[in-house]
Design a protein that fits this description.
two-stranded antiparallel ribbon, Rossmann fold, globular
């Protein structure tokens, strides 16, 4: 699991918020928790859902490009950032219901969305329970069948006590509720599971893009092919020589170009996806 820790340290590196683009921030009560989100740009809604131990700050290098074309919602998911801490009754289903209730609060009937890892599982579960909400989605490092407890069972490396000091320092910069809520993110007993059948995936009737590193150290590469084979209107990008977080540098600009082409393809206005690609 040392590879997992190395991945997380790389993935949570905090960025800056683009204050000049920021339209709004708010913390709102949904599904029994306080959820924080930021809004950038104008247009049709695009949700950005980060990975485990990250926060909305992860998307700082992506927001400027997406905000040229969309109203971007960068969200702190359950247990992360400024949103309420994760509790022992955590499930992926609860996380997806958080997003559903946020959409209802914002009066957003249909969305485009990008989900990375935990954010991808949350998005996949939302697509499962409320497919009418999805216009199109991008899944990164995501599996339709996953059990986080099994992946970390008996592995002392995946524990708060064994984390490198610099990692703990970064976690404290990102998460705003103190040490105990951060420790809770490393609870091996959390119900971090999803189990969607191929038959269920086959019912998805919206456009889906699947992005996976060919050296994904968390879920492997096979789940990407499962998603691609079973979601009817899907596209697959296997990123070479890349791990779980396949969209960071040196792949960041390529991802921005390809994802923007995908997200704007069903817009009425023709878009040059190479316009305003800014790392």
């Amino acid at each position: 699991m040392k590879e997992l820790i190395a991945f997380i340290i790389m993935a949570i590196t905090p960025g800056q918020n683009f204050g000049q683009l920021l339209k709004n921030t708010e913390t709102v009560e949904v599904n029994g928790i306080d959820m924080y989100y930021e809004v950038y740009g104008d247009g049709e809604p695009l949700l950005l859902l980060h990975g485990w131990t990250q926060s909305s700050r992860f998307w700082s290098e992506y927001v400027r490009t997406y905000a040229e074309y969309f109203e971007v919602y960068a969200i702190d998911l359950r247990g992360h950032g400024r949103t309420s801490r994760v509790t022992s009754d955590f499930t992926i289903e609860k996380s997806s219901k958080d997003i559903l209730e946020l959409l209802d609060y914002l009066k957003l009937k249909k969305i485009r969305a990008i989900g990375l890892s935990y954010g991808g599982l949350t998005l996949l579960e939302l697509a499962n329970s409320n497919p009418e909400k999805i216009e199109s989605m991008i899944l990164i490092g995501t599996s339709p069948v996953y059990n986080g407890g099994e992946n970390t069972k008996g592995d002392s490396a995946f524990s708060y006590e064994n984390l490198p000091a610099e990692f703990i320092e970064e976690l404290n910069e990102i998460h705003h509720h103190g040490e105990n809520p951060i420790k809770a993110l490393f609870d091996p007993n959390l119900n971090f599971k999803i189990n969607l059948s191929n038959e269920k995936l086959n019912t998805f009737n919206f456009r889906t893009m699947i992005v996976q590193g060919d050296r994904d150290e968390i879920v492997g590469v096979d789940p990407a092919f499962t998603l691609y084979k079973n979601i009817p209107n899907s596209e697959l990008w296997i990123v070479p020589n890349t791990g779980h977080n396949a969209i960071v540098s040196p792949n960041l600009n390529s991802f921005l170009t390809i994802s923007l082409q995908f997200l704007t393809r069903d817009n009425n206005e023709k878009t040059d996806a190479n316009k305003n690609i800014r790392p």
